[in-house]
Amino acid sequence: MDAGLGTCDAYANVIVGHYNFRSRVVKNSLDPHFNQWFRMGLEELKDEMECRVQIWDWDRFDEDDHMGDAVVKMPREKLMEVGGLDGSYGLIDSEGTDYVKNAKGERSCIHLKFEVYWAAEPIC
Question: Partners of 10 in the beta sheet?
């Protein structure tokens, strides 16, 4: 949280398997909208994949602050049946004990959309 401003400069780390993506920083917001796409090539779809989204507060002069995580389990049947997932997932605090609350005292969520596109050729 930025001292005196009551806002943060949020960014997200998105981790799926060995892929790790970092979003852009959304400055001075308690309700950041990242609106970004990340693309990854998977050789095989496991029975269940996990996506971990870590939300961080970027700081220019200090270490970045870990705000919380959302973990999404993505079952293969669901991904294949409907071609992806689209939903809101609660953000758990960095200690893993409680939901992160926004300025209104409501549970903070992150909205994620996963789309599966099948490659015409094997990915090298």
Answer: 26, 57
